[in-house]
Amino acid sequence: MSIHIKFINQFANVTIKAALAASYLIGKKDKIAADKAATDSMRNELNKIDMDAKVVIGEGELDEAPMLHIGEKLGTRNGPILDIAVDPLEGTNFVANNLPGGLSVIAVSEENNLFNAPETYMDKIAVGAVESGTVDLDYSIKKNLSNLADAKNKDISKITACILDRPRHKKIIEELKLLKVNIKFITDGDVAGALLVSNDKYKVDIFMGIGGGPEGVLAAAALDTLKCQFQGRFIFKKENDILRAKKMGITELNRKYNIKDIIKGDSIFCATGITSGDIVKGININNDDYISETFVTHKSTNTKKVYLQKNKINRD
Q: Is-contact 15 106, C-beta < 8 A?
């Protein structure tokens, strides 16, 4: 079974329209309004597609933002049964403050093939197309980086690690500095951060640290098609998080998930730029036209490319 190639353009259109909706709020200092605009647009466009889809990863619970909620049914109900993970606005602060890296993101799989991640934190590690087992969440930082340097045939001082600039990463950052590893800090947007390992042109060898669990699943959907490696382990600090996870069927709270545990079978991933970043450029509006860039993967057709589209703005 696979997801028909016709859906590539349809799902790309979903993230393009959501990105356009959010783009009108770039720099307006209102991340809630920007998220709502992207979410409302995404829901509207998804409901036009001939599919019987269910949201398995929604957005907004941690930020109390407008949601495409877990379990929500989408589409015309005529068509294939699909699971959908969404982040209508990845990097709300980027868009609110007119900073680089705002995205609209969606991942789609066949039914029951996309991990239903709770809205909690996840310890993550991602690398490019190296041998499985080169890095592991259970290894020390030094072992992971040494193994990766050996696999890439370069000195450890030539390795670049991408990590969220957060106080919780203080010890990791200190160790990276001791190892003389290059560090690329990001302030938000750990879907895009993980994707940086997928191509040498981004000059990032490893993505690591603690970020959102749902964002980990979204990134894994793209990294799977790109033959990259990803591991994640959920971090449960509150009893409510544990209860929610158990309701989702997660009983091994300390389990380490590999990429094949997170995404199975065929998948489509789309990420459209709202503000320009490393992966794609942002929405560019010129009178009645706008140009968008969307990073798209489709596993069964081995699609992995950036689509540039020019469209008319509907003023109705």
A: yes
Show which of 239, 262, 285 is a domain's final residue.
262
Same domain, 277 and 237: no
Which domain covers residue 79, as residue numbers? 6-114+266-312
CA–CA dist 110, 268 (Å, integer): 10
Give the domain CATH number at 30: 3.30.540.10
Per-residue pLDDT for 254 more than 60?
A: yes
Report residue 144: phi and psi, to 5°.
Answer: -60, -45
Quote the CA–CA distance of 250 and 230 in Å, as a whole number: 19
Q: Which of 262, 280, 304 is the last residue of a domain?
A: 262
pLDDT at position 118 is: 77
Q: Are residues 139 and 219 in the same domain?
A: yes
8 neighbors 40 (Cβ within 8 angstroms): no
Separation between Cα atoms, residue 167 and residue 221, nearest integer Å? 28
What are the angstrom distances between the C-alpha of 51 and each of 58, 105, 109? 18, 19, 12
Say if 1 falls within a structural domain. Answer: no
User: HSE of 176 in the Cβ direction (CA atoms, 13 Å)?
Assistant: 21
d(CA 13, CA 309): 10
Q: Per residue in 214-227, pLDDT tens?
A: 899 999 999 999 99
- Cα 183 → chain centroid: 20
CA geometry: angle 199, 203, 207, nearest 5 deg? 80
Q: Is 43 left (phi over 0), alpha (psi -120 to 50) or beta?
A: alpha
Q: What is the pLDDT of residues 93-145, one digit of tens each?
A: 999 999 999 999 999 999 999 988 778 899 999 999 999 999 999 999 999 99
Same domain, 150 and 106: no
Specify whether the CB–CB gap between 273 and 102 falls below 8 A. Answer: yes
The per-residue DSSP string of 65-127 comes to -----TT-EES-S-S-EEEEEEEEEE-HHHHHTT-TT-EEEEEEEETT-B----SSEEEEEEE
Cα torsion 93, 213, 186, 141 to 10°: value is: 160
